[in-house]
Amino acid sequence: MSEDIQAGLAEILEEVAGVAPADATPEKSFTEDLDVDSLSMVEIATEVENKFGVAIPDDELANIKTVGDAISYITANRG
Amino acid sequence: MSTNDDVVVTGLGATTPLGGDVASTWDALLAGRSGVSRITDDWITEFPAQLVARLAEDPASTIDRVRARRLDRSQQVAVVAAEEAWRSSGAADAGVAPERIAVVFGTGIGGALTLLGQDDVLEEKGPKRVSPFTIPMLMPNGPAAAVGLAVGAKGGVHAPVSACASGAEAIRWGLDLIRFDRADVVLVGGAEACVHPLPMAGFAAMRAMSTRNDEPERASRPFDKGRDGFVLGEGAAALVLERGDAARARGATIHARLAGAGATADGYDLVAPHPEGEGAGRAIAAALRDADLSATDVGHVNAHATSTPVGDTAEAAAIRSALGEHVLVTATKSLTGHLLGAAGALESVFTILALRDQIVPATANLDDPDDDAAVQALDIVRREPRKAQLTAAVNDSFGFGGHNIALVFTTA
Fold first, then answer.
1. What pLDDT does A62 receive?
2. Which residue of chain B is at minimal alpha-carbon distance from A13?
3. Looking at beta carbons, which residues of chain B come within 8 Å of A16?
4. Residues of A in contact with B129 (CB under 8 A)
5. Is B33 left (phi over 0), alpha (psi -120 to 50) or beta?
6. Of A17, A39, A46, which has the smallest distance from its Cβ to B66's Cβ?
7. What would the pLDDT profile of B170-218 be if each residue is shown by its tens digit?
8. How confident is the model at residue A1, as a pLDDT?
9. CA-CA distance, B252 to B3, in Å (whole number)?
10. Nearest Cα residue to B18 out of B71, B57, B69
11. Interatomic CA distance for residues B372 and B366, integer angstroms
12. Is B383 left (phi over 0), alpha (psi -120 to 50) or beta?
């Protein structure tokens, strides 16, 4: 289950921010390791909603620092 | 002449309906190849004007994919042209401090494709689906900002907006930045990419566009009796400006001198040009004074001539009154279409190449020159390019709003 989410998230990261899928591992920080800026994070949130049906409110988005944080949030909130 | 008044052009770049770079564009122009075609998309059926001069090469194909998706097409073409000019100038290796590099890049309309595309998203899917890159992609300083980032310019990034004179106005401001010692190197130019139903409908509603839909390559015919409007084009062009002494000291290739510029306003009508080209003539005269040249020094004019009934005769009158009847005139929009805010930059590149190669490109489709007295009096090069001995040449650009810019280039 979380492998599916990781793979789906990796696709989004590649499309939006040019992150190689192999680099999209749970411990990676979006801003510090993957060079994803704040506007791209907003775009990623939109794509996450499209793909997984999970909306990420702005205050929650601010707490998502790593790929692992995103996977946990999606797992916990997926219907 | 003080050192700062000797401003030279050391880099050229372009991506146009005729080619993906300067060399291929210039070759196609001299060969008389047209960039105009008929739109075949479904939406065009009800449009009176169905012609367009699309880019020869998709700019997104030469830019990194992730970078390209954050740039409006007008920014993509700006970056492609600017990077060619920057590379060819060798300025990056000259050790110029970023704080002494400036950018002036104009556009007529800006990020229209983003604005209109994201409005569709808003209408269909709601505000939460609108891209977070919407604003930086639609803002009219977007092309200038993208170019500034591409070359690491920290000495100021500026974006003049004066409709179809924007590209020429950018060159004029670049000249002043060097003269006033605000920068050592200035990357200047113009960009436009707005082929979309709304601008097409708007220009058509003004009756400004050619409706010669069955003969795309014959539709843009400046100064010809049968002209019936312009053909919308897309693309960008860029020039690198710097002081002559600095360019020579680093052994740079000098394509031409930018000897002077003149800027005036018609003060006549929001869109219609003054019928005798009064403001346009004053701009040419002002550029000559600025360059410390007289009319007899000028051998060639790359005219703005868009192929509209009113504009071409007004410009012919302006050229005749400001320069006389000896100049070799050409209207390159006959092949490129009208690149709006990029036109002045692209035609400056053509003017410089004409000086370099001592040849004036032909005006295509000028089969039967207008009966207008000034058009009849001028020596408009047609059918074949003409070899000539040129030391100085003028590029005219005019924009809706009554903006007139004339630039004077001289041989290196």
1. 93
2. B66
3. 66
4. 46
5. beta
6. A17
7. 999 999 999 999 999 999 999 999 999 999 999 999 999 999 999 999 9
8. 61
9. 17
10. B57
11. 14
12. left
Question: B343-357 and B166-179 are packed helices; what angle lies between their axes, rounded to 10 degrees?
Answer: 70
**Best mutation target, A46, A47, A49, A50, to test chain B (most B CBs within 10 A):** A46
Sheet holding B37-38, edge to edge: B37-38, B51-53, B232-233
Cβ–Cβ gap A43/B131 under 8 Å: yes
CA-CA distance, A13 to A40, in Å (whole number)? 9
Contact B118, B131 (CB under 8 A): yes
- Whether residue B132 and residue A42 make contact (CB cut-off 8 A), yes or no, is yes
Token pair of B254 as six digits = 């000098």
Q: Which residues of A touch B (CB under 8 A)?
A: 16-18, 39-40, 42-43, 46
Cβ–Cβ below 8 Å for B128 and A46:
yes
Classify the complex by whether its ipTM is higher than 0.90, answering yes or no.
no
How far is A11 from A3, CA to CA, in rounded Å?
A: 12
Distance CA B77, CA B71 (A): 9
Distance CA B209, CA A13 (A): 43
Asked if A18 lies within 8 A of B128 by C-beta distance, the reply is no
CA distance B132 to chain A (A): 6
Rounded Cα–Cα distance for residues B182 and A63 (Å)? 44
Given this model, what pLDDT does residue B1 score?
A: 55
On whether the CB atoms of residues B13 and B50 are closer than 8 A, the answer is no
Residues of A with Cβ-Cβ distance to B128 under 8 angstroms: 46
Supply B75's token pair. 């920014």
Phi, psi of B181, deg, nearest 5: 60, 35
Q: Please indicate whether, in this complex, the C-beta atoms of B66 and A16 are within 8 angstroms of each other.
A: yes
Active site (catalytic) residues of B: 164, 304, 338
Percent of chain B with pLDDT over 70: 99
Tokens linked to A23: 């680099």
